[in-house]
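HUMAN:
Sorry, I am quite new to this. Are you able to go through these amino acid letters and fold codes? The numbers rather puzzle me.
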Amino acid sequence: MGRTESDATVVLVMTRPSTKSGQALIEYAFLMVLLATITFAVVALAGNQLSGLYSDLNYEFTHLTDASTIAPDGTTLTPGATPPASDCAPGQVLELRGHKWKCK
């Protein structure tokens, strides 16, 4: 084999396309499907808690200067008033969190 033939062989080997050219695309697609499934499961399982948290934060930001508070049953209380303990289930205590009284 002469020098010209070996150079041509090396060039052909270097320019030959890989047989696994689509493998990376399929792996990325599987990863995206896995991430989408996990995200959907987290939102489905924690959706109600996240909704309640968003609702509480939204209420607090829109009522920053209010002096009144909200009882667990939704009624508005005058400043300094405490709702009756009977608003909570047995074994729970009232706790003031921001502008809202919560049963814990």
